[in-house]
């Protein structure tokens, strides 16, 4: 909810509370078998005489309650989703049929584990042939070197023999690489998320065989507004409430430097532990980033009022029962009230009758029946 809408809602509650408070006060007074002193249109001279003479019964009666400030953490609250830190699709590196598929969907594998094999076909024979050619080229090169030292071979002929030997060795490497591509190894500890091929299926190079997902750590990703992104920084803490009720804690690992062109928001990645494997890619989450701690008071919205300038605040009384108006800033809300800042740590707020008094008035304070907070 936008702050402007929230403030409009609070002001509406203040007005409604102002109207209702008088009626509630009468009802409570009736239940108590007495009446609160009704507001009297006293002149300044009358009030002074009442104060000097000690005739407190002529002063406006109010109820007040002592409120103590509590520590409240300011947060940036955004919606997001879970995402695996690493996801990879294993593909065939050479053509051939799958002769072994050692895993099924949901299986966990370790880094280096063999997950699939493709038929070698004639690669072993080609490797043996290539190694034999290397031996032959080596003998030819050695002979060329000896004849060259006796003047029977030119330097060009010796260099050509060396080049032939190197080419034979390169061919051995080439065949060995082709053989290595027939074995598919897991690149990291992961879980098999999807299997796209079966034993006996013919594979072309770059054809998908299976997909792996790294389970730990995990990411919770959100798009943060341009107003709030400056309050966050890599390494700061955060927690995420996953849609299934799981709560995870972690640290910010990445904040995008470029805004999304459509939403004008910035990508933020919260890295969290997932050792128990409860998180799944794509789950909805609410992410909370704590940014600051302040002293604030938890109040009922009905205690807020407006002064003559339209400023939102509360009316308080001091030890001498003098009324003051103190502006407040709304810094948050909960199901049982709103959080406001700007008040002294300990303050006595008028809970009944604040609509009948003004700044500087002296009042008669009757005890509040509500428990103090």
Can you give a write-up of this model?
The chain is built from 4 helices and 22 strands. Helix 3 (123-149) runs antiparallel to helix 4 (155-180). It has helices at residues 3-32, 44-53, 123-149, 155-180, and strands at 61-68, 70-84, 87-91, 96-101, 108-109, 114-118, 183-185, 190-195, 202-203, 208-213, 218-225, 237-242, 247-255, 265-272, 284-299, 305-306, 312-317, 323-327, 329-334, 337-341, 346-352, 364-367. It is an alpha+beta fold and 373 residues long. The strands form 5 sheets. A 6-stranded antiparallel beta barrel has the order 2-11-14-13-12-15. Strands 3-10-8-5 form a 4-stranded antiparallel beta sheet, with no helix packed on it. The protein has a 4-stranded antiparallel beta sheet with strand order 7-6-4-9, with no helix packed on it. The model is unreliable at 22-27 and 29-46 (pLDDT under 50).
Quick synopsis:
By secondary structure, the chain is of the alpha+beta class.
């Amino acid at each position: 909810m936008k702050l402007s809408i929230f403030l409009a809602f609070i002001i509406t509650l203040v007005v409604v509370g102002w109207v209702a408070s008088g009626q509630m006060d009468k009802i409570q007074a009736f239940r108590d078998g007495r009446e609160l002193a009704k507001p009297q249109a006293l002149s300044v001279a009358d009030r002074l005489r009442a104060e000097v003479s000690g005739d407190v019964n002529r002063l406006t009666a109010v109820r007040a309650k002592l409120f103590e400030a509590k520590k409240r953490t300011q947060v940036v609250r955004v919606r997001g989703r879970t995402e695996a830190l690493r996801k990879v699709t294993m593909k065939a590196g050479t053509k051939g049929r799958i002769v072994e598929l050692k895993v099924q969907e949901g299986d966990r594998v370790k880094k280096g584990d063999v997950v699939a094999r493709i038929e070698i076909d004639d690669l072993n024979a080609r490797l043996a042939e290539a190694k034999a050619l290397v031996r032959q080229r080596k003998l030819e090169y050695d002979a060329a070197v000896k004849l060259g030292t006796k003047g029977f071979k030119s330097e060009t002929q010796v260099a050509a023999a060396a080049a032939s030997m190197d080419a034979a060795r390169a061919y051995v490497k080439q065949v060995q690489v082709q053989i290595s591509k027939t074995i598919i190894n897991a690149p990291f500890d992961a879980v098999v998320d999807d299997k796209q091929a079966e034993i006996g299926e013919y594979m072309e190079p770059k054809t998908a065989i299976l997909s792996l997902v790294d389970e730990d750590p995990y990411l919770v990703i959100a798009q943060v507004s341009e107003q709030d992104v400056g309050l966050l920084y890599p390494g700061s803490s955060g927690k995420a409430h996953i849609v299934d009720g799981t709560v995870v804690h972690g640290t910010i690992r990445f904040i995008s430097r470029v805004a999304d062109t459509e939403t004008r928001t910035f990508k933020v990645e919260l890295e969290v532990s997932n050792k128990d494997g409860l998180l799944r890619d794509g789950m909805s989450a609410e992410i909370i980033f704590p940014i600051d701690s302040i002293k604030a008071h938890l109040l009922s919205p009905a205690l807020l009022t407006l002064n003559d300038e339209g400023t939102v605040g509360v009316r308080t009384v001091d030890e001498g029962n003098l009324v003051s108006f103190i502006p407040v800033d709304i810094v948050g809300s909960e199901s049982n009230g709103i959080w406001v800042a700007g008040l002294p740590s300990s303050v006595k707020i008028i809970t009944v009758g604040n609509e009948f008094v003004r700044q500087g008035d002296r009042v008669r304070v009757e005890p509040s029946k509500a428990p103090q907070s």
